Amino acid sequence: MQTEQQPCAVAEELSGYLDGELSQQEQQRVMIHLRSCPHCQQLLADMQALRGDMKVAVHVSADARDLPKIMGDKPARWLGILGWSALILGVLLVTSFFFWELALDLLTNSSVPWWVRLGIAGFYLGLLGLFLMVLRQRLVAMKTDKYRKVKL
Ligand SMILES: [Zn+2]
């Protein structure tokens, strides 16, 4: 039986044991030793507690830093995506219906000068471009969120 003044050789491997960095053989050795050594058991428990505290501390600071992101947990995210999709689709359908009616009226009306028709075409192209840009931004934002999640 060893004393506190003479720590076991295994004690140095406890950190690696906790991190799962040991080889299977080393791990087995530490495990077997732990069963018969209260000193190392205590040491391991202390290390675990310390790491737990560190993890909690890191977690808390992450929470504070990423509060808006954490508020957007998975169900909320999906509801958000669903809501955005429905909103975009609805706005798109309603506005395109009205604008289509208006454009058709103007384009088929021969009393409308050509530059107004050109303006209408430009307006439509611009609208389409802006919509695609917003869509792309949303997709990029979603990708970035995913990346951040993995990093955490
Ligand atoms: Zn020991």
Q: How does this model look, in words?
A:
There is one protein chain. With about 150 residues, the chain is mainly alpha-helical. It has 2 domains: about 10-65; about 65-150. The chain has 6 helices and no strands. Helix 2 packs across helix 3 (about 40-65). The chain is rod-shaped and about 100 Å long. The two termini are about 45 Å apart. About 5% of the residues are buried. The mean pLDDT is about 80.
Discrete helix count: 6
Strand content: under 5%
Main β-sheet description: none
What is the chain-wise order of helices and strands?
A: HHHHHH
Shape: rod-shaped
Q: pLDDT under 50 segments (min length 5)? A: none
Name the average pLDDT.
79
Structural class, by secondary structure, is mainly alpha
* Tally of structural domains: 2
Q: Cofactors and ligands present?
A: zinc ion
* Overall radius of gyration: 32 Å
Helix content: over 70%
- End-to-end C-alpha gap: 43 Å
Q: Can you count the beta strands?
A: 0
